[in-house]
Each structure stands twice: as C-alpha cells, then as structure tokens.
Amino acid sequence: MAIELGWHHLGTDAMRPPKNMSDLQAMQFRNIERTWLVLFVYDRSISLQTGKPWMIEISSYLKSVSNWYLHPLEMANDRLLCAFVSLRLITSSHFEMMTTRYAQQQRHETSRYRSTLRMVDEAIFDWQKRWTETVSERGEDCHAFLIPFYGSYARLLLYTSSLRESIKLRDIVTTVDTEAIWNSYSSALDMLQLVSEPSASQLVYYAQDSIHVMVAYAAVFLIKLLLSAPTYMRTEMELPALDSIRNAANVFKNLQAPAGTSCALQAAFLHKVFIKHESRMERRTSLRLHVPAALAAPAAPLASVDPAINRPTPAHAQTMQRPNINPAYNDQNTFPDPSIYDIDFADDEAWASLFADAGFNIGQGAFMSPT
Known about the structure:
By secondary structure, the chain is an all-alpha fold. The chain is built from 12 helices and 4 strands, in the order H-H-H-H-H-H-E-H-H-H-H-H-E-H-E-E. The chain folds into 2 domains: 1-139, no CATH class; 168-288 and 331-371, no CATH class. 58% of the residues lie in helices and 3% in strands. The longest helix is centred in the N-terminal third of the chain and has 28 residues, at 23-50. It is globular and about 85 Å long.
C-alpha cells in the first residue's frame, strides 16, 4: 500500500513536501516519512532473519536519513529510528556482499575473508558508538540499551553465518577459525550481560517479543558452541557463558511476570538451558574419570592471536578478557573430552529437538508454552 501511495519516491520531485506548508501539513508529511522509515526497518529485519527477499529498495533518500531526526518536529523516538535505518543499511549492503560469489570464494583465502569480516564488524562498531552517544543526549535510557543490544546481535549474525558455512567445530582435523568463534561468543555474551544489568531490568519487562527472541538466540548459540567447540576453546568459554545465562535467567525470574508472558517463558527457558548444561558437565566429568590415562592429552597450547582492530571495550564487557588463541588454530593434537553429545554445528534438526525440550522452537523463533 505504501508503494502504491508513492512513498518509495520520497526524496525525488515526485514526492517532495509542498512549499509554504501549514504546521498540520508539515506534521502529516513528517509522519509519512516516519512510517516509510519504520516499514524499511521491518522489511529488512524480516528479510535478514528469515532469508526471504526484501520488498523496499534502498534509495538515495534512505541513505541520507542519518540526520533526519534534526528537525523542529522531532519526536522522542526519531533518533532511535534513524539509528535502526542506518543499521539496516549496513546489514543489508554488507551482509549481501558477504554472500556474493566473490566473498564465497574468499572463504578459501582465510586472510582476505577475515579482512572482509573485520570491515563489516568495524562498520557495526562505528554505528554503535555514534548512536549510543546520539541517543544519550536526550537521556533516553531505553534507547541507550537498545543500541548496543542490536549492535551485538548484528555482530552475532555476522560471525555465526561465517561459522556455519566454513567449519565443522567437532571435526578435529579441520582448521578452526577461532577469531570468528570468539567474536560470535563475545557478542552473544554481551547481549546477555546487557539484559542482566540492573538498569535494564524494567526495560526488558516491557520489551517487544523480538527482543526476547534475540536473547533466546544468544543463549542457543552459546550452548551450541559449548557442545560442538574443540575442548581447548570450551575450557575458556564455558563458565562465563553459563554465568551469563544464569544471570539473565535470574533477571527475568525476578521480574515476577504473569505466567505465559514472554518474560516468564524466557525465565523458564534460560533456567532449563542452564540446568541441562550443568547436568551435561557433571556427566562429562564422570565420563572423563573413566578415560584411560594413556588416552588423556594435555590441553592444546594457546598460541598468540593476530592483532585485531584496536578499539575501546564496551563498558558492559570490560570484565571479559579475550583468551590468547590463534585465529586459525589446528586442533589435530587435542583429544576431545568424552561427551554424551556430538552434534554438528549445522545440524538444525538435532539442535531444534534439543532446544524444544527446553521450551524454545528455533524454527519459529518462539517460546513453547508448558503443557
């Protein structure tokens, strides 16, 4: 309908505001622009999450809206809206670039492909820095939470897409791209730490369902990583990951939301995920005690990492220290822990069954009400 009304021509002579508008006309035209920007954000968000084609073309008008909020008729949410449009422009153009044939060929040239990932990562970081400062000028706590949260989620999507296509984490003869794994891991951790901050507790109570799905996805990724990563990496990541899941679960539980609401279902899901993985750890420890000594091998040495792009550490992630791991460490000499689970990272059916048991439908991106 918006396209039929010609809103996609915004910024051109066919859709310019009339001269000498009245205040009412100016507000009406501003609302048309605002609605079109919201539609673009939703269109690209749905496309990114589902893989379905988008409907709204990127125009010169959309590319120029980063300062759209600077207007006498600015509303409280306009800055956040401009931020989301800017992020969707990054994820649309850059993620499309990552899926081109040229980029796919670069996967076999590790250094070039990693440089491409870093370029996109840097664009997301710059976006997050700029818009965190911009929305903070208005003292909007909710918006100051959403900017780093969505930035971390965008980074998580960026690096998990790389992992899914390029490696099999449980294959110990494969060279593992630990830089991509670490960036995915730290992004998921940042998301859970953000919702666990005291200042965010009341914000997440009123959060949209999409926020809850992203929180659940971060927890899903961390558990997938812990169950499929090489032993030397899991050793570094397991306790911080479980702490973040447990803390987030407690935050949602302490909100005491009514049964059946997103907060209540989120609390139950995160708690089940935490308890189930603790049980796996106990069984893994028990199995390890029965491994013959001749088969035991020392943990793999952690080689130095190639210098990554230097940048400030987000306040909510300053307590995390990056393990001293090589971006492309070959795990051939590491004997894996005995495990009751051996699921390939890309085995969607197996993961869907595992997390459905904890109360989350991965395919639908929705919590499952207890029966």
